[in-house]
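Marked as duplicate of an earlier ticket. Keeping the data here for the record.
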Amino acid sequence: MTKNAKTSRIETITIGDRAVEIAIRRSPRARCIALRIDPAIGGAEIVLPPGASESEGLAFVATRGGWLLDRLDQMPRRITFKDGVAIPLYGEATVIRHAPDKKIGVALEDNQLVVGGREEHLARRLKDWLRRDARRVISPLAWALADGLGQKPARISIRDQRSRWGSCSSTGALSFNWRLVLAPPFVLEYVTAHEVAHMQEMNHSPAFWSVVNDLTAHCVTGRKWLKTNGGGLHSYG
């Protein structure tokens, strides 16, 4: 899951009579222009290899216009954080309840996420809480798994990444997507083990997968779950 890539900007293009947002990302590891659906922006992403221009990338998108619109129509609808909406906190349906009179930020009470304060601040407060909870769960797990390998993370970050669930830099800095708290615990454990394993094997060789399997019993099931359901998690928030 580790990458060395950069999103430069988001461009809005018109396909037929429909405006579509396209995230443009460069990757030194890409060998050709690639196009994929990006649920986080409700549009798509193009990945440009070294030497390819943005205009070439957008021209490639135009040639796949019909395919792109079909895929966007099949994409899960956006689910905004508001009163009454259920989100899958650690894989369990948890209902958001707005309590404007309560002097709290966010509290988990009986399978409900109770959010205090003004309604216009609900989405931001809940997202901030989910990021903090992701850190609360992931950070000690990552440290424990790294310790088992005789490694120490340079730092652990929780981010709002669009295209990946985690990453590990060459210096041992780990980064994880806060939306992992919307997946079952075994998926979160798998992703954490995956990135920690990169601290020892900075590749996806058989040796790397051997390390992952030593760190977690959920390698196969975690990967399969993310492949099937991961895209839907980006529709929340």
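See parent ticket for discussion. Residues 86-127 form one domain.
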